[in-house]
Amino acid sequence: MLIQLSSAALMAAEVAEEHAEGTPAIVYGAVIFGIFMVLMFATMAFTSLGHRHEAVAEHVDPQRQHPNKHDHGQGIPE
């Protein structure tokens, strides 16, 4: 299996080398740089999304089957 995988990778590299001779390396670098810039701007756009609204206290429901432990002692006593 490993020999088949390595021979397939070698064949793909040879085919890619034949097709890539006309394209300069700066084009690949510019495309990759552009992709990373788009991802960075998308990350920056959604950075403060969690800070838009004030946190609201959760309603304590004693009938809840799995109550969270963040109700500061107002839930079902254990």
From TrEMBL:
Residues 57-78 are annotated as: Disordered. The chain crosses the membrane at residues 26-46. This is 4-hydroxybenzoate polyprenyltransferase. Keywords: Membrane, Transmembrane, Transmembrane helix.
